[in-house]
Amino acid sequence: VRLASTGGAWDVAQKLLAEHHAAHPSVDVELQPAGRAPKLQAILEGQLDAALVHSAPPTPGLSFIETSTEPWHVVASARHPLADAGPISLRALQADPLALVAGDPGGARRLREQLLDLCRAAGFEPTLGPTLATLEDALIEIGRSSAWTFLRAANARDVARVGVVELELCDELPPARLWLAHRSAPAPAVRALAAVARRLRCAQAGGARGNE
Known about the structure:
The chain is of the alpha/beta class. Helix content is 33%, strand content 25%.
């Protein structure tokens, strides 16, 4: 099974591979780069069998399984005027540039729309800032400027090492979601991987209820 992962999905990918190997030790799952083509297009064209993706746009020929959710974090420079302000409204950042990460062509466009939707739900249209090639580049730019961005929980770890801090919000943001995408009529080995993804999501949901 040829599987592509995505930024910030390390924990899920590791669990998915480990659980799948335990259940199906004779099936090899190969982690492959998606290349320059968007991952969803690569699946449709047969270059990949499945991919972990951060959005699930309705796509003829593809199915999506939600594998996990995690909170969004808002980060800015440790020198930002609001860095030590305590809980703030997301709207307090509307005049500062929102930094974006390029990523693969399709994924970058969908991520941009997700972040814009988070801002619009908070009642404002963000000031768009630079689009950087990588997350590391974005964090460096944020650390030296007034720019800010949203990060998934997995990406928000250790941001202090580049002079970036998490801002405490009074807004309640909808969670970031991760899906496993595959063709609508998958091969048996891909169906098995999808079944493992469903079990992981059920386990996460059960753990969340148990912590309430």
